[in-house]
Amino acid sequence: MLRRGRLSLKGREPINTPCYLPPSSRGCVPHITQDTPLASTWQVLEKVDGQDLPIYNTPTSPEQSRLRQFIALQHDVLLVMGPRRQPPVQARNANTDTSIAIQTSLGFSSLRSDDYVGAVQKLKPDIVLGLADYEHMKRPGVKRLEKMGDRTLSWTQDMVAGLRGDADRSPDTALFAPILPIEAGQQSYYLDLLKEDLAGQTSGLVLFDAASVDAVPADMCHMPRLSLTEIHGPLGVLHNIALGVDIIVPSFLGEATDAGLALTFVFPIYGRPANGRRQQLGINMWSKGYDSDLSPIADGCKCYTCSNHHRAFVRHLLEAKEMLAWVLLQMHNLHAMDVFFDGIRGSISTGTFESDRQVFEESYEPELPASTGPGPRLRGYQVKSGRAEPRRNPQAYRALEDAADKLAEASSPSPAVDGEGLTKQDFATIT
Question: Regarding predicted confidence, which is higher, 286 or 375?
């Protein structure tokens, strides 16, 4: 099931597959600016109700994308839009016959099929992912299974009709139809109509579980497959590709950067470690051992960070909570992923992928190393919104009423008082 290919759309830089889409938040890939070279980006539609949204009023020519203009994305970068963030968040409300449940920056809400179609017509992404009656982390019951295929078919037909009926839309807008994460027999009616009536109207497939590749009809196996499976590391990437996935959205990429981790794995590996010990998939830049380390993050890495800075500098920036720390880490990690996928494509071409994959699994730890420091300031896309969850970062601010009372009672220190004296008078704390 291994395969290589090329994803090409008019006016966009062709992308060799297998490849990855860096997930975005609020219109950009976290920590980097829009002028950073990228091959593709993943955008999430969080709110479509109301015609007064600024993005809908972005001035463009008829052939231009309002979404691309609004987020100032480079012209040749592939723009993919989906209805849910990656990784998705379990919504507290349920899907209906006309809408799916989503989490937005304003809380949980519902995204109607007709609103989604209207947004796609106005925003004109290069690729749009169809709506699917799938609820994250919820196991469907018997009655629920009967509805999933019918609802997904109805929403896919809505999108096909909307794209075909919009005379002003870009002809390059491609629809990726969803394949539900259930048995092929449980969605057979939907799959039959998808390959018979809608095959000419869809350009690719989106999977919510990589194992759903087996449910893809034989007549549609030539289409590119985008996986939204939640992946926690490079071993998951290799597993998805082995199943026949072409495009991956690796959520662990941003999570590693936020945690202060620099990715250092390579693929393929030529020879196992001499000491027989498994290598770490990355290094924790919060480690105090890098305080005076003037070597690059990864030896031989040609990214901007490794070419111009050293570990001690990145470690200092993290300690100082400078956002440049996460910018440099993200640039390195994006480059590491680019090199990783270059190696994957080369391994497939030479016919050594399975053996290379086995060596990789035996040479690296199965999970990324744990972080020992706080991440950057939390943004909406990072919050899971579960019940009774602990704080991800320690509390940065606290009420100062007690300190104000103590200061009012204390006498002002003289200029000759040292640090210990200031501490005794509650004017300072020695750390």
Answer: 286
